[in-house]
Amino acid sequence: MRLAFIMSELGSGLRRNLTMVISVILVTFVSLTFVGAAGVLQMQIGQLKGFWYDKVQVTIYLCTDVPTNTNCVSGPVTADQKATIQGLLDSPAVKPYVEKWTFESQAEALTHFKEQFANSPMVDSVEAGNLPSSFRIKLTDPEKYQIINESFSATPGVDSVVDQRKVLESLFSWMNIATIVAVGVAVLMIVCAALLIATTIRLSAQSRAKEIDIMRLVGASKTVIQLPFVLEGVIAATIGALLASGAVWAIVEFFMGGYLANGNTGTPIISTTQALVIYPILILLGVVLAGIASAVSLRKNLKV
């Protein structure tokens, strides 16, 4: 009986306040889309950091079949040249600056490339021979990169010496700024959504003041009286959260996985599968937001 009454009141409230409910859905949709976009951007930053960013500070790329400088005019790096480079890494002149190093073969480079660029259309067109083998070096002091560069850049068999962190530092800085901006806008929109939900619930309660008085007289509990109003906000916010989840999926699928992946074949892009973790968070956030806003509004404006 109580459940039927609550559902009846809920339906009545949704019909009477349809315009406000739609407003709540739209504001929740926009605010949670910004939240989801910020989450996707952080996931993309993590994807870009990938396999080596947190582990490698300097990479010594070795010569391949395609020479790019005078060190490689004699062809691909030889076994003797690799041994010479390894010996130099372990020499007293260089070793104090090197915390650890690893060698990555062309086959291993291809495996890591496929892991990092799994969502890129170029992944199937790259072969091991297209990628250079390399020594991956972690420095004891990242500021000593120039010492490694000077020690190895002219060594036979070395194609280039790259400080990977320097290459990506500015990119990640801009992406982190973009994330902060997205989060700031999301917080502002969430505040607007909470205020709109609270206003909607208050107006809905005021429009049914006589019905509420009758319910009090017949001994209805606070829960029975307040629950239909709370559910109005929760349902509207949940619909908005579902729409936001759909929008985030579309961003990842069509913009990032489609447009960006096709236009930037050298950039690893997150997939819709990786973004799945964001959707339940958005829905939960919408439900919690509506529940809290509705409960606070009822406590202040509906004395039961």
TrEMBL record:
<keyword id="KW-0131">Cell cycle</keyword>
<comment type="function">
    <text>Part of the ABC transporter FtsEX involved in cellular division.</text>
</comment>
<keyword id="KW-1003">Cell membrane</keyword>
<comment type="subunit">
    <text>Forms a membrane-associated complex with FtsE.</text>
</comment>
<dbReference type="Pfam" id="PF18075">
    <property type="entry name" value="FtsX_ECD"/>
</dbReference>
<feature type="domain" description="FtsX extracellular">
    <location>
        <begin position="56"/>
        <end position="161"/>
    </location>
</feature>
<keyword id="KW-0472">Membrane</keyword>
<feature type="transmembrane region" description="Helical">
    <location>
        <begin position="276"/>
        <end position="298"/>
    </location>
</feature>
<feature type="transmembrane region" description="Helical">
    <location>
        <begin position="224"/>
        <end position="256"/>
    </location>
</feature>
<dbReference type="GO" id="GO:0005886">
    <property type="term" value="C:plasma membrane"/>
</dbReference>
<comment type="similarity">
    <text>Belongs to the ABC-4 integral membrane protein family. FtsX subfamily.</text>
</comment>
<keyword id="KW-1133">Transmembrane helix</keyword>
<dbReference type="InterPro" id="IPR004513">
    <property type="entry name" value="FtsX"/>
</dbReference>
<protein>
    <recommendedName>
        <fullName>Cell division protein FtsX</fullName>
    </recommendedName>
</protein>
<dbReference type="InterPro" id="IPR047929">
    <property type="entry name" value="FtsX_actino"/>
</dbReference>
<dbReference type="InterPro" id="IPR003838">
    <property type="entry name" value="ABC3_permease_C"/>
</dbReference>
<keyword id="KW-0132">Cell division</keyword>
<feature type="domain" description="ABC3 transporter permease C-terminal">
    <location>
        <begin position="185"/>
        <end position="300"/>
    </location>
</feature>
<dbReference type="Pfam" id="PF02687">
    <property type="entry name" value="FtsX"/>
</dbReference>
<feature type="transmembrane region" description="Helical">
    <location>
        <begin position="177"/>
        <end position="203"/>
    </location>
</feature>
<keyword id="KW-0812">Transmembrane</keyword>
<dbReference type="GO" id="GO:0051301">
    <property type="term" value="P:cell division"/>
</dbReference>
<dbReference type="InterPro" id="IPR040690">
    <property type="entry name" value="FtsX_ECD"/>
</dbReference>
<feature type="transmembrane region" description="Helical">
    <location>
        <begin position="21"/>
        <end position="45"/>
    </location>
</feature>
